[in-house]
Amino acid sequence: MLRSTDLSVVCRGQDATSDARIAEALTNQSYLQLSAGVQHVCGLTADFSYWDFGASAPRSSLSAADVAAFEGSIRPSCWGNGVTNARGNDSFLTPAYIGSPGDPVVDVSVGDSFTCTRTRSGRINCDGTFGSNGDYGAYINTKDVTDPSFDNPNGVTFGVVVAGYDHVCGVGTPTGGNAVHCWGSANLGVVQAANIPAGTAFRTEAGALASGNGFSCVLRDDRTPVCWGAFSQFFTPPTPSTTRFSYITAGRFHVCGIRVVDSSTECWGVCEHAECNPPEQLAPRSVGCSALASTGGGAWRTRATTRA
């Protein structure tokens, strides 16, 4: 999680000493965003001398040159377990920098042993390996993900990209076709074209896409969710396909969202440990939703995500 006062990171878990996701966190550093996965955590850091911590945004007095300097300073920063022996490639801990003047990195999302970053214009890069896993054995089509032209769709710019446990899904920008694309390990059905929702009527803002272990969900233009992949057919409770959500996020085998009608929380999926029963239902508008990354005009907000 991020502290509201200085955007420094606080990590908690079962074993704070041996879990590198906790022990190696740079707690004296500020972050615009966090994403936690099975092996590691990544955040977006920047030059926070340009930042107004009270407003959680760049200082309003910044000149155009200052804004450009701030955006140019944004970099992915990762920590956690290197898994070279088990999965062959730990480049996910040092993802390539793909930002450029006028097109800064605005989003980072991590999976099991890979990291994806996205720029404001929708360019993406994923580093790491869709590797073998102790629970499920070797994945089919295990590949390194090196750049947007290798595994993921050629020439597509993305409005949102989310890493699942063993795959990545994204929704193209209007210039990128507005369609859903997925790539990665193929044995759980989530990346097969026949299973991916067809059409272009999908939302592209943060919180419109969620990916777990062998499934993904996306919000349609009317904010109703659709889920696909092997585990989605076993969801109990099932996907609430007629409920409208302002935000969704996925755990390993379940999804939770904030409902439009009353801002309360609703969850669905494989819920053997009461994870689909939120501890409390909050009053309307007490769960705030806002723009969570740059919208193209330098309007920054911060966020943190995790798959627990």
TrEMBL record:
Major subcellular location class: membrane
E.C. numbers: 2.7.11.1
Swiss-Prot/TrEMBL catalytic activity: L-seryl-[protein] + ATP = O-phospho-L-seryl-[protein] + ADP + H(+); L-threonyl-[protein] + ATP = O-phospho-L-threonyl-[protein] + ADP + H(+)
Subcellular location: Membrane
GO MF: protein serine/threonine kinase activity
Membrane topology: Single-pass type I membrane protein
Enzyme class: transferase
Transmembrane segments: none
Gene Ontology cellular component terms for the protein in this record: membrane
Record keywords, A-Z: Disulfide bond, Glycoprotein, Membrane, Receptor, Signal, Transmembrane, Transmembrane helix
Protein's name according to its UniProt entry: non-specific serine/threonine protein kinase
Species this protein is from: Porphyra umbilicalis
